[in-house]
Amino acid sequence: MSGKYFEQNLVVGPFQCNCRLLICPRTGEALLVDPGDDAERILQMLDHAKTATNKPVRVRYLLQTHGHLDHVGAARPVKHALKANAPQIALHRADEPLYLALKQQGALFGMEYEEPFPIDHYLEDGEDLRVGDLRFSVIHTPGHSPGSVCFRLHEDSKLGIAESLFSGDTLFQGSVGRTDLWGADGDQMFRSIRERILTLDDDTRVCPGHGPETRIGIEKRSNPFLQ
Ligand SMILES: [Zn+2]
Ligand SMILES: [Zn+2]
Fold first, then answer.
1. Do 196 and 141 form a contact (C-beta atoms < 8 A)?
2. Cβ atoms < 10 Å from Cβ of 14
3. Measured by CB atoms within 10 angstroms of the end CB, which terminus of the chain is less buried, N or C?
4. What are the structural domain ranges in the chain?
């Protein structure tokens, strides 16, 4: 591996959630954003990454943007499979009730889940997370759900990292999150987007929980929900 960081996206499950793997090239430390479904395929992605990076990959966190089933559904089987070096399941406390109700969420869609593992790490607004040389900060963006967060990955030109935002179901290319689900609040979501997301640099790459990537500046100018 060339000293550049490794990133791969895998679209998982019937709701087509983007599950992303990021790896520090120096240490092999890694994280997964939103392991929502298809645990077997996520584990295959990790195996392929080990070959690609020539390094043992150690997943330190399963970072959950929020507690909806399509984002957290594979957290338990992935953590279980990695048990020798188990990652920490990380979620904002305000979405813990949703997360713990995974079985009930599934029942609404005829999907079966095992009881979720407990949350290991409660994400806090403004918290900085380090995974090897990768630097993240947590931005609490309530609205789509009470505990929705975005993860900001800080630019690092040496590692080939562009400033990026993993925006979960709060901001999409050309759209915004639903606000008709349990605990949602539309006014709060738009406030989160305007005050906490659109204030980032226009060049920031946005990686939503579903669908294609975009940029802050593009959404500011052309997202029909934000005009
Ligand atoms: Zn959601
Ligand atoms: Zn979703």
1. yes
2. 11
3. C
4. 6-226
Task: Report how far residue 155's alpha carbon sits from residue 91's, in angstroms, rounded to the nearest whole number.
Answer: 23
Distances (CA, A) of 214 to 36, 62, 134, 167, 171: 21, 23, 21, 11, 10
Closest CA to 68 of 3, 22, 113: 113
Residues with CB under 5 A from ligand 1 (ion): 68, 169
Ligand nearest to the CA of 177: 1
> Do residues 70 and 99 touch, judged by C-beta distance below 8 A?
no
Tell how far the Cα of 69 is from the centroid of ligand 1, in angstroms.
Answer: 8
Least reliable range by pLDDT among 42-56, 171-185, 200-214: 42-56
Per CATH, the homologous superfamily of domain 6-226 is Ribonuclease Z/Hydroxyacylglutathione hydrolase-like (3.60.15.10)
State mean pLDDT over 126-153: 98
- Identify which of 37, 54, 68, 36 has the alpha carbon closest to the alpha carbon of residue 146: 68
User: Is this prediction's pTM over 0.85?
Assistant: yes
Q: What residues contact 82, with CB distance under 8 A and at least 6 apart?
A: 59
pLDDT digits (tens, 9 = 90+) for 48-68: 999 888 889 999 999 999 999
Please give the average per-residue pLDDT across 63-79, as a whole number: 98
State in Å: Cα 74 to ligand 2 middle. Answer: 13
Query: 166 forms bridges with which residues in the sheet?
Result: 151, 207
Contact residues for 207 (Cβ-Cβ < 8 A; gap 6+): 9, 18, 20, 33, 164, 165, 166, 167, 213
